[in-house]
Design brief:
With about 200 residues, the chain is mainly α. The protein has ten helices and no strands. It has two domains: about 60 residues, Homeodomain-like (Arc Repressor Mutant, subunit A), CATH 1.10.10.60; about 110 residues, no CATH class. Helix 1 packs across helix 4, helix 7 crosses helix 8 and helix 8 runs antiparallel to helix 10. The longest helix has 30 residues. The model has no long low-confidence stretch (mean pLDDT about 90). One of its GO terms (molecular function) is transcription cis-regulatory region binding. It comes from Sinimarinibacterium flocculans. Keywords: DNA-binding, Transcription, Transcription regulation.
Length: about 200
Amino acid sequence: MSKRPYVQKKRAESRDETHARIVEATMRLHEELGPRAATISAIAERAGVQRLTVYRHFTDESELFQACTSRWLGEHPPPDPAQWQDEPDPRRRVTSGLGALYAYYRATQRMWTVSHRDEADVPGLQAPMAAFHAYTERLADSLLAGWRGAARVRRQRAATLRHAVRFATWTSLAREGLSDGEAAALVLRWLDGID
């Protein structure tokens, strides 16, 4: 009886475990130091592997960042607009949606702070960040649904919501001491003031 399938299975399991350790190390270093400072050497050291092993598992930085982002977002999924999409009252929809988004930003603040800071300097980070920016645009569109008004009013409300869903906006409001609920209520007042 051949032991080859057993050996191949063990080898594949070991490869998968090493891959997962590298992704985990990358994720933790990104959160602690930021993507710009998380070198391949530091990632390898944290994962307990050689630098060459990192390159065997990931052909380039973009592939490593994509794996890291997928894993991190799997553990920290952003709010799903389906949670408030069926709410017919646009004011309650905004309060619910922004409340969920702002609570998410608060819970994941460290990773988003370093990611936004390093976005322009780290090519491997640009695609994942572009995907998140597209998500916030879709989220703003979901919050705009149901608001009535002339084209000019609708355009101003859309601009307000696009501004409101940005991490930088939440950061600024939180720095001023506003709770997530207070920040969402303030945005609602901005929207109500457009006519």
